[in-house]
Amino acid sequence: MAAVLVAAMVVVLSVSVAESATVEYQFDVATMNVTRLCGSKSIVVVNGQFPGPTVSAREGDLVVVRVVNKAQYNMSIHWHGVRQLRSGWADGPAYITQCPIQPGQSYVYKFTITGQRGTLWWHAHISWLRATVYGPIVILPKLGVPYPFAAPYKEVPLMFGEWWKADTEAVISQALQTGGGPNVSDAFTINGLPGPLYNCSAKDTFKLKVKPGKTYMLRIINAALNDELFFSVAGHPLTIVDVDAVYIKPITVETLLITPGQTTNVLLTAKPSYPGATYYMMAAPYSTAASGTFDNTTVAGILEYEDPGSPSSAGFNKNLPVLRPTLPQINDTSFVSNYTAKLRSLATEEYPAEVPQEVDRRFFFTVGLGTHPCAVNGTCQGPTNDSRFAAAVNNVSFVLPTTALLQSHYTGMSSGVYSSNFPAVPQSPFNYTGTPPNNTNVSNGTRLVVLSYGDAVELVMQGTSILGAESHPFHLHGFNFFVVGQGFGNFDPAKDPAKYNLVDPVERNTVGVPAAGWVAIRFRADNPGVWFMHCHLEVHVSWGLKMAWVVQDGSLPNQKLLPPPSDLPKC
C-alpha cells in the first residue's frame, strides 16, 4: 500500500495569478529482480517500476522530486532537457552540479519548467546506471493553450532502451580496467520490453491498440546507452511535430532517426477502417562503427487494431498477417543527414526562433576517439595491445573531479578542482576527416570554458576519423541551441558559414555530430552555473568525451545563480 502512495503524484495548487502548480513526487531508488530474455537479474529502478514513473507537469509548474537512495550505488538524477534557469543545483550530473546521493541518503530536486512544453526525460547521471534508471517527462502547455496542431485522441510514451544480460556496472568497470571496448547489449527494448524478435520474449511485447480513424501522439524517447536508432511503423507514416520539447514545422516520414538523449513527438493516424492485419513498430541501430562494437539487433512492438466485429477486444488475434516496415541500412549516413536537414523550427510569432544573429564567442571543437598509453609494462585491449581507448574534445579527455564543479565555482574555491583554460580551438590542427595522425594519444584534464552572462556563442563540432569516423550525439545541459549548419568533411570557415540557416533552424538539446562531418550550433549563455556537455553514447562518456561550460552571473538579480539548497549532497 505504501508503494502505491509513494508512486502517486501529489499536486498542490499554489495561489498564483499564472495558475502554475507545484507537482511533487517521491522517487525511491532500489534494486529489484526482473526477467528478460530467459534470464533474471537484479536491476536498479525507481518506485519498483521499469521504466520508471512519468513526471507530468504543465509549462510554468514547479516540480519537486524527493529522491531516496535505497540502492547500493551512489545515485544522481538528471532532468534531461529541462532548462534549469538559475537552478543548476537540480540539474543532476554527478560531480558536475552535485555530489552523488550516497546509499541511505536523499536529496530534493526543485525546478520550474520555464518556457518549455513537449517531451523530455529523466535518467541516472552517474556511471552506467541509466541503463535501467529512466522515465518520461511530459510537459503539457499552460492551461487553455492548445497544441499548434490538431489535438490527438490519445498520447502514448514510447521509450527505447537497451538490455544487458550482464550487470552493466561490471561491463563498464571491466572495460575501463582492460582499456578495451565494453561488451555490447543483448537486446533493445520498447518501454522495457524486448518483444517477439528475441528469444522467449513474445510475452514481453509492447502493444499499442488503436481505433480506426483516430490519431495518436507517440512521445518517443531514446534512452539507449550506446545506440542511435531508426524507427518505423509498417503501413503508417509518422508526422513529426516536436523534437526535444520544441515545436517544429510538421514533416511526414516513413522512418525517423533518434539518437540517445533525443525525444521526438509524432502523430500516427490509424487507418479509417479495420484493416485485418497487425503492424510491427520496429527500431534498429544506425552506426558507422566497426562491426561487433554495437548491438546489431532489432526490436519490435505491435500496433493492433480494435476489431469492431470481435466480441472481445482484449485478445490478440494471432491469425492476422503481421506487416513489417523496411528500415534503412545500418550505416546509411545519407539517410541520416537528409532526415536531420528537414527539421525546422516553427518560427512563428507565438513560437519564435530566437537565433543569435551576431556572435560574441566562437569555438571550434574536435570530437572523437583517441588513445591513452598502457600502464608501464602493462598489456591492454585497446586499438593496439600497448594502448587503451580514450575519447576527447579538442584533444582533452575530461576527468571528473572528486568534488562538484558547481560548488567549487559558487564558493570561488576552484583551485585544484578545475582550470578555466579549455582550448577554444584545436592546439594542433590536422586533417580531421582524412588520414589520422600517427600519434593518437590524448591529454587528460578537468578544463572548462568560462562565458560571460548573455554571450552569444557559436560552436562548430568537428568529427574526426581517428579510430574510425562515427556519429556523436552531443548533449548540452542547461540550454537549448539552434543547429545552424551541418556538413561532411572538414569545416571550412571561409565558405560554410555562408550556408547557415539563421531564420528557422531546429532548436534542440542533443544533436548528432555527423560521421566524418561537422555541425554548427548557436546559443545564448543566459543561464548562470556550470553546464556539462558530452556525447550521449555512454561508452564515449566513460572514455572522456565530455567537457563543461561556466556561465558567470549577470548584473541583475534575476541573472544570478540561486544559492545551494541546504540538503545538497556532500562528497
Automatic annotation (TrEMBL):
Keywords: Apoplast, Copper, Lignin degradation, Metal-binding, Oxidoreductase, Repeat, Secreted, Signal. Residues 29-142, 155-306, 427-554 form the Plastocyanin-like domain. GO terms for molecular function: copper ion binding; hydroquinone:oxygen oxidoreductase activity; oxidoreductase activity. CDD domains: CuRO_1_LCC_plant, CuRO_2_LCC_plant, CuRO_3_LCC_plant. One of its GO terms (biological process) is lignin catabolic process. Its main location: secreted. Binds 4 Cu cations per monomer. InterPro entries: Cu-oxidase-like_N, Cu-oxidase_2nd, Cu-oxidase_C, Cu-oxidase_fam, Cu_oxidase_CS, Cu_oxidase_Cu_BS, Cupredoxin, CuRO_1_LCC. Its cofactor is Cu cation. It catalyses: 4 hydroquinone + O2 = 4 benzosemiquinone + 2 H2O. The keyword Secreted applies. It comes from the Eukaryota. It is found in: Secreted, Extracellular space, Apoplast. GO terms for cellular component: apoplast. The keyword Metal-binding applies. Its EC number is 1.10.3.2. Residues 1-20 form the signal peptide. PANTHER family: LACCASE, MULTI-COPPER OXIDASE. Belongs to the multicopper oxidase family. NCBIfam families: laccase. Lignin degradation and detoxification of lignin-derived products. This is Laccase. It comes from Triticum aestivum. The lineage of its organism: Eukaryota, Viridiplantae, Streptophyta, Embryophyta, Tracheophyta. The gene is LOC123079722.
